[in-house]
């Protein structure tokens, strides 16, 4: 299991660690309109999952904005999701205020389905750990980053390079 810290303190991740070469686990999260979203909804596309603890924090805000900017250069065969446990209503409000239109925010607040399937559910905080996963059009995981300190930024360049390698 991946080992991470949150504000320098160790935390417990619940779920299964995902590794490069694995078939991406399925999940059910909620779109901003409360409709269910699962892995199969983007079947045949390259997917980047940007996982954040909460959009209302500086690093999560910056991470989502960065992937939103990058999305415009990646083409129609790429879907970028930002996954958090923020309520769908809060995600929609945040996206409107931030001008986010190329990334789809989805909420794992109800069941922590994504968090457990990808091993990013922080038991002590009921938040998701910061991570990035890239899944190819066939559902194979091609890139994984569990950010060791949840308050740090992910490696944006490596994640985008992983997506571009599939496009």
TrEMBL record:
Enzyme Commission number(s): 1.11.1.24
MF terms in GO: thioredoxin peroxidase activity
Catalysed conversion reaction: a hydroperoxide + [thioredoxin]-dithiol = an alcohol + [thioredoxin]-disulfide + H2O
Keyword Disulfide bond among UniProt keywords: yes
Domain Thioredoxin: from-to ranges: 18-167
InterPro entries, per the entry: Redoxin, Thioredoxin-like_sf, Thioredoxin_domain, TPX, Tpx_CS, Tpx_Peroxidase_subfamily
Regions annotated as coiled coil: none
Superkingdom of the source species: Bacteria
Active site, renumbered: 60
EC class (word): oxidoreductase
The entry's keywords: Antioxidant, Disulfide bond, Oxidoreductase, Peroxidase, Redox-active center
Family in the record: Belongs to the peroxiredoxin family. Tpx subfamily.
UniProt subunit comment: Homodimer.
Alphabetical list of NCBIfam families matching this protein: PRK00522.1 (NF001808)
Function: Thiol-specific peroxidase that catalyzes the reduction of hydrogen peroxide and organic hydroperoxides to water and alcohols, respectively. Plays a role in cell protection against oxidative stress by detoxifying peroxides.
Name by which UniProt lists this protein: Thiol peroxidase
Species: Lysinibacillus mangiferihumi
Organism placement in taxonomy: Bacteria, Bacillati, Bacillota, Bacilli, Bacillales
């Amino acid at each position: 299991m991946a080992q991470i810290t949150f504000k320098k303190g160790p935390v417990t991740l619940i779920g299964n660690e995902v590794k490069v070469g694995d078939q991406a686990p399925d999940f059910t999260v909620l779109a901003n309109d409360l409709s269910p979203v699962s892995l199969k909804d983007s079947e045949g596309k390259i997917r980047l999952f940007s996982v954040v603890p909460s959009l209302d924090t500086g690093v999560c805000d910056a991470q989502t904005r960065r992937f939103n900017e990058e999305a415009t250069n990646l083409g129609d065969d790429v879907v970028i999701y930002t996954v958090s446990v923020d309520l769908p209503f809060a995600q929609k409000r945040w996206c409107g205020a931030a001008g986010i239109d190329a990334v789809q925010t989805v909420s794992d607040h109800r069941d922590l389905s994504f968090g457990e399937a990808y091993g990013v559910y922080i038991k002590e905080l009921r938040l998701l750990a910061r991570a990035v996963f890239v899944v190819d059009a066939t559902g194979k995981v091609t890139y994984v980053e569990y950010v060791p300190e949840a308050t740090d930024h992910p490696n944006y360049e490596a994640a985008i390079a992983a997506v571009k390698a599939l496009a």
